[in-house]
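A quick aside before the break. I want you to see a complete sequence-to-structure record at least once, exactly as it would be stored in a machine-readable document. Don't worry about memorizing anything.
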Amino acid sequence: MQNRFLVVCSSPHFRAKGSTARIMFDVIIALLPAAIGAWVFFRGRALVVIIASVAGAVSTELIMLRVRKRKPTAADISSATVTGILVAFCVTSTFPWWGAVVGSAFGIAIAKHCFGGLGFNIFNPALAGRIFLMHAYVARMTSWEPTYFETKELSSPQPTHAAEASPKVDGETYATPLGKVKEGILQKRSTEEIERGLPSYWRLFVGNRGGCLGETSALLLLAGAVYLLLRRVIGLHIPLSFLGSLGLFGWIFGAAPMVGGGVFRGDPLFHVLAGGAVLGAFFMATDMVTSPMTPKGKVVFGCGCGLITGLIRTWGGFPEGVSYSIFLMNMCVPLIDRFTMPRLFGADFKK
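That is the input. The structure line, written in C-alpha cells, reads:
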C-alpha cells in the first residue's frame, strides 16, 4: 500500500504557469521600444550606457551570489538585467558609461542583496541606484543635451523674420521641460513666459525633448506597458492612481508658485507627459516586491507616489520627484498592506 502524506501549507493553494524568470523576460521585452527610442533620440551614446549598465548589474549579481554561496538562476540574471536597463533609463545622455556601472552595482549589491536578494528587498534597486548617482554625481546627472533631431534643428538655417523664427535650442544651457519650469519659477518669470519656452504636447508624447534616456517618449513606454498589461504582469491600479493623482495635483497647484499663477490653473497633461512619470508609473512603481499586495493598497500607493511627485515638482528643490516619491512610498508598503488587507472569511471584528 502506497503511503500518502497530508501536505499542510499556507495559502494560496494554486500555482500559476508563469515564473519569475518569465515575468522578468516580459519586462525586458516591454522595455525594448523605449531602448530603441533612446538610440534614435540620443544615438550611440545611449546604447553604450545601456550595455554598460546591464553588464554592471549582471556582473554584480553574479559576484554577490558567489559571495552568498548561491547558484545563479535564470530569475536572478533576468531581474539583474531589468535593473541594469532601468538604471540606464534614469541617467542622462551625457552620463559616462562607468557611472552607469556604479549605479547598477549599488542597486544590486546594497539595495537588493543587503536585504536578502530577489524577493526580499524593500526598495526598488534601480531607483536606489538612480538616487545614489543623483547625489554622488550631481553635475553629471543634471547635464543635458538636446536630442538628435533638436540638434539638426539647431544647425539648420533659422528664418530671418522674427515671427517665423522657431525657438533656438542652446546646447550648453539646455534644460528639460521640468527644468525650464523650475528655472522660470526661481527667476520669478510670468506664467506666459514660462509656457512660451516649453515643447508642444506632441513632442512630449513622442519623445523629441530633453530628459533621461528612457523617459522621454511616452508613446514607446505606453507601448511596452500595453504588452505588460496583456501579459497580466502588471495591473492598472498603481499606474492610473499615480498618473491621475499627479495630474490632479498639477491642475490644482501646478501654477501656484508662478508669478500670476494660482490654484486650478495648472496643466495636468504637462505634468503627466513631462519628466519620468510614465516610466515610473508603469515600470518602477509596479514592482511586485516593493509594492502593496491588495488592490486598495495599490491605489493608496499610487496616489501617494503622485502626490509626493507633485509636491517635489512644485515646491521642492528638484525639478523632478518621481524616483524620490516611489522610494519613499516603498517604505510605507508594510503599513499599507497591514491596513488594507481584506477581512478574513468568517471573522467577526465587531466583538
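Two observations worth writing down. Residues 44-67 form the longest helix (24 residues). The radius of gyration is 22 Å. We'll return to this after the break.
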